[in-house]
Write a structure and sequence with these properties.
single chain; 178 residues; alpha/beta; six-stranded parallel β-sheet; two-stranded antiparallel ribbon; 6 helices; 33% helix; binds flavin mononucleotide
Length: 178
């Protein structure tokens, strides 16, 4: 189990609707200590399309779905309860919004407010290479991220207090050091 509490603060985790790395991220979460999970509307749908229909989260995990227009759970960031935010996996859609400074749903609001509250962020981006294999709900498929997707991922790397990782192993390594 990864000990993810630090100075009485905990980890926040945003999951977005990416099939790529989805199951791997659920596996990592099942081995974490207490954390708060923020689920995008698309992630809530995608989770049902993959084999692991019932994700197992550690006891005391608080799960927030995207049900409010104002993304009310962002208020937690002003209570100073998180030491780090993880966004994993991060869709090309969410990354495009992150780099454009858009906050119009739960995932993008949590990312923006973490930044405004100076909470460091780790993002596992799906689109980091011009070509990759990914698991669709029923089979493996090839994906060719567009120039715009790769450029957005690159732009995100220049954000303050934001670490962009491109593999599950790198995410695990970074998590083990926080
Ligand atoms: C089965 C399935 C798998 C998907 N996988 C990916 C993916 O690997 N990467 C990606 O960028 N979008 C993927 N999408 C598309 C996103 O879910 C879609 O762009 C959605 O609007 C993202 O919303 P969010 O960023 O708020 O979670 C997938 C959609 C479905 C239905």
């Amino acid at each position: 189990m990864i000990n993810n509490s630090k100075n009485n603060k905990k980890l926040g985790w945003v999951i977005t609707g990416s099939g790529h790395f989805f199951e791997e991220c659920l596996d990592i979460m099942s081995n974490l200590g207490e954390f708060d999970l923020f689920v995008s509307k698309a992630a809530d749908e995608v989770i049902r399309m993959y084999k692991k229909k019932k994700a197992s989260f550690p006891k005391n995990t608080r799960i927030f779905r995207d049900t409010t227009a104002s993304s009310a759970p962002v208020g937690f960031f002003y209570k100073n309860i998180y030491h780090t935010l993880v966004v994993a996996p991060a869709t090309s859609n969410s990354i495009a919004k992150f780099v454009a400074g858009i906050s119009d749903n739960l995932a993008t609001n949590i990312f923006a407010q973490a930044g405004k509250c100076k909470v460091p962020c780790i993002v596992l981006a799906c689109d980091t290479e011009p070509e990759h294999d990914t698991k669709a709900p029923s089979k493996m498929v090839k994906v060719f991220p567009r120039k715009i997707d790769l450029e957005n991922t690159k732009k995100l790397k220049s954000f303050e207090s934001t670490k962009v990782v491109s593999s599950v192993d790198d995410l695990k390594k970074v998590l083990s050091k926080i």
